[in-house]
Amino acid sequence: MFTTFLFYALSTVLLAAAIGVITARNPVYAALFLILAFVASAVLWLLLEAEFLAIVLVLVYVGAVMVLFLFVVMMLDINVTTMREGFLRYAPVGAIVAGIIVLELAYVIWFRSDGLPVGAQLVPRDGAYSSTEELGKVLYTQYLYPFELAGMLLLLAIVAAILLTMRHRPGLKVQDVAEQVKVQRGDRVRMVQMKSESE
Amino acid sequence: MWPVASLSFLQTPWLALPELVRYLLVLVGQILALTIVVVLCVAFLTYLERKVIGYMQNRIGPNRVGPRGWFQPFADVIKLLVKEVVIPSSANRFLFVIAPLLSIVPALATWAVIPLFPGFAIADIDAGLLYVLALTSLGVYGVILAGWASNSKYALLGAMRSAAQIVAYEIAMGFALVGVLMAGGSLNLGKLVEAQSGGLFSWFWLPLFPLFIVYFVSGVAETNRAPFDVAEGESEIVAGFHVEYSGVAFAIFFLAEYANMILIAALTAVMFWGGWDSPFAGPLLGFLDGTILEVLRLPGIHWLALKIAIFLFCFLWFRATFPRYRYDQIMRLGWKVFIPVTIVWIVIEGAMAALRVGPWNT
How far apart are alpha carbons B24 and B20 in whole angstroms? Predict the structure, then answer.
């Protein structure tokens, strides 16, 4: 009863936040709505007793990815009117992409879930059951290769991003920290011996 | 035990309450008690900070309000409470007001999973370590939104510095905790403390020494404390992200910073220094059993409090000792020193676990 109430309340928040992401005029508000959507879906996962996934969603997306998003969005000078100019021109493409996603979701929910108990009651687990442990076991045995491949893809993306942004401009004044640390007193200061003088 | 006995007339109405109500009352009571203790600790930590730094700089520090200045924090609180809260005219009102709350809530909510004494934490959950990581990573939103909503260049600069710094050090912190997780074999903080039981030399600081250093220094950086306080940087950007805040709103930021310091000290104590375990619990001092000194070998919340106090003293000591880091040096330390150190030590730890050295010898 209480769980059902929570589910509907959180789903409402989630949907409202998702609509807010695409309708908010201010990009910072859009990013904040996205954070709200992530938090609401994390709590929905908690209702499903998937505490590992829920906390990792908050940790990775809210704690790291969205911080960087906000960081970038705050620095951008976005003019909303110029962004809306090409709306009609791009609308058909957007509609096609949205249609494909809806079809994919429908396919997964209605056809691929064949035999899976959709809308069934959650099987309660005892205290010794740890979803973290179960997930780890599956990830490192049955899905080892897909998991490693996903890791390789991410690594590739990191290397590519670094390569794209690492430009060597000539005449750049960069501090060489090793050089700074290596400096001895004798390199900077010259001690001179001289007699005291008086006028 | 007469005070308890005189309360026995309450037993009947208490048992007459529904079980859910009793459960909620006990839970809310625990949360309130812990929060009040943390807030009081914050109040006296500000006093202690001024005293400790004062003596380190050969001054006396606050000594006017109350005996030896003990009531100074309360005077400060009253001053901040009665001050006017100024909201800049071009600030984003909603985010401006909500930002301090976003920084205080994670700082207090993380306390739920800290094991306070053997077998007790307010929320004894299995994913405790992940919960700690997730919540401490949320604290940065208060800083970023405060900086952005103030609509001030200094505040925005402070927020940007702080965001970059926190993202950098969070990775090192997370990796350091991966090491703790490998050594303890659990994500439950209470079980991590149990895995360390057995006195000073069985705590994780010994096999995980580099990770302990990385974690604690990253903790100092995460809480924006000196020498990593470029987010405030008085000499460069006035007061950084909270430059436009006054009165109660500023007090809440202040409270959050100090609550975070206590939290980092508590987490360091729990994960590397045995939490509530006694340093004399090892078999080396077994001859004390049966004598009066046996009490020294018993675990309890006093050991946790003592360890937290020692780490808090280190926070203050750092502030009195080190000049502020330059911004590029902070980034270099985070990305190029700490993260490689943690990755290398995780590999070494894996080798130690495979060869059954250290805490893996069973």
Answer: 6
Q: What is the pLDDT of residues B4-38, one digit of tens each?
A: 566 667 777 777 777 788 888 888 888 898 889 98
B23, B130, B336: best to mutate for the A interface, most A CBs within 10 A: B130
A28, A59, A68 member nearest B134 (Cβ): A59
Token reading at B115: 């094991």
Q: Cis peptide before B227, with omega less than 30 degrees from 0?
A: yes
Mean pLDDT of chain B: 83
Which helix H or strand E contains B174, and what residues bound it? Answer: helix B153-184
Read off the amino acid at residue B32. Answer: L
Instruction: Let me know: does A44 contact A14? Beta carbons within 8 Å.
Output: yes
Q: Return the DSSP state at B198.
A: S
> Are the beta carbons of B193 and B287 closer than 8 angstroms?
no
CB proximity list for B103: less than 8 A, separation 6 or greater: B139, B141, B142, B143, B146, B252, B253, B256
CB-CB contact of B100 with B245 (8 Å): yes
The DSSP annotation for A170-184 comes to TT-----HHHHHH--
Contact of A130 with B126, CB cutoff 8 Å: yes
Nearest to B174 by CA among B226, B206, B222: B222
Q: Could you report the per-residue pLDDT of A67-81, keeping only the tens digit for each? A: 888 878 877 766 666
CA distance A107 to chain B (A): 34
Quick check: B358 pLDDT over 70? no
First to last CA, chain A: 98
Q: Residue A143: helix, strand or coil by DSSP?
A: coil
Instruction: With a threshold of 0.85, tell me whether the complex ipTM lies above it.
Output: no
Q: Give B341's DSSP letter.
A: H
The string over B209-230, giving b where at least 16 C-beta atoms fall within 10 Å of a residue's C-beta and e elsewhere, is: ebbbebbbbbbbbbbbbbbbbb
The alpha carbon of residue A9 is apart from the nearest alpha carbon of chain B, in Å, by 22
- Structure-token match 């687990």, residue found: A125
Calculate the average pLDDT of chain A. 83
Residues A6 and A32 sit within 8 Å (Cβ to Cβ): no
Which residues does B327 contact at the CB level (< 8 Å), separation at least 6? B161, B230
Q: Which residues of B touch A (CB under 8 A)?
A: 95, 125-127, 130-131, 133-134, 137-138, 140-141, 144-145, 148, 156, 159-160, 163-164, 166-167, 170, 187, 328-329, 332
As a residue count, chain B comes to 362
pTM value is 0.83
> To the nearest whole angstrom, how far is the Cα of A190 from the nearest Cα of chain B?
26
* Closest of B142, B146, B116, B123 to residue B245, by C-alpha: B146
Rg of chain A's alpha carbons, rounded to an integer?
A: 28
